[in-house]
C-alpha cells in the first residue's frame, strides 16, 4: 500500500521513499533508458522494410447468362442442369472469382511461372552457385511452402460487404515486385476464369447440338436454340473481355513508403521500456536492501 505521508516504523511504502529510490538510482535509470532508446533505434534501422501494394477490384456480373437461361428454367431446366449450365445464380461468378484469386492452384502456377521459390526463400538460396543452401533435400522449399507463405504473410483479399468491392493486398520487401505480383494475380484470375467459361460454353454447345439432333418436338427444339444462343453469347463475351472476372478500379502502383516496421513506434517503445524496466529494477533492489 502506498501512502503520501511519513510512516516511520511501518511496513507501508510511501511515495517519498519511492521518489528517493528513483532519485538515488537516477544514473542507472538514465543509462538504461538511453540503452533502450539505442536498441529500439538499432532494431528500427536494421529491420527489413515491408511494402504494401493494393488493387481495388469490382467483381463483374454474369452478363448474357442469367437472363436468357433463367427464363428457360421452367421450360428446360432439367436439360440445362444435365449440360452443367446454371439457372440463375447471379452471384456465382463473384464468389468464384474471389475463391480463384485466393486459390492454391492459381498461386502454385504463378510461383512456378515466375520462378519465385528462390525469391520467396532467398535466405536459403545461393545466387552465385544457383543452388539451395540446405544439405537435406527434404528441407528444400516447395510450392506447398510458397503457398503457405503467400496465404499467411504476403497476400490478403478483403471484400466490402456493403459495396462488394474487393481489395487485393500484396506485402513484400521489394516494392516493385509487390506491385507486379498484385497486378499479375488479378490478370491471371481473369484469364483463368475466362478460359474456364469458354471451355464450359464449348462443352455445353456440343451437348446441346447432340440434343437438337435427337429431338423433333418443336417446343424442345425452340428451347434448345435459345440455350445455344445464350452459350454462344457467353463464349463471345468471354473471348472479348480481358477483365472477365474483375474490373480494375484502382490499379497497383509501386509503394513509396513501407508499412512496417513503424520506426517511430519502435524507438518510442524502446525508450519507454528502458525507463520502466530500469525504474522497477532500482526500486526492487532498494527495498531488498532496506529489508
Automatic annotation (TrEMBL):
Segments forming domain Tyrosine-protein kinase G-rich: 218-284
InterPro entries in UniProt: Bact_polysacc_biosynth/exp, GNVR, LPS_length_determ_N
Transmembrane segments: 27-45, 265-287
Occurrences of domain Polysaccharide chain length determinant N-terminal (ranges): 12-113
Subcellular location: Cell membrane
Keywords linked to the UniProt accession: Cell membrane, Membrane, Transmembrane, Transmembrane helix
Membrane topology, from the record: Multi-pass membrane protein
Predominant location: membrane
Gene3D superfamilies in alphabetical order: FepE-like (3.30.1890.10)
Organism domain of life: Bacteria
Name recorded for this polypeptide: GNVR domain-containing protein
Source species of the chain: Banduia mediterranea
Record lineage: Bacteria, Pseudomonadati, Pseudomonadota, Gammaproteobacteria, Nevskiales
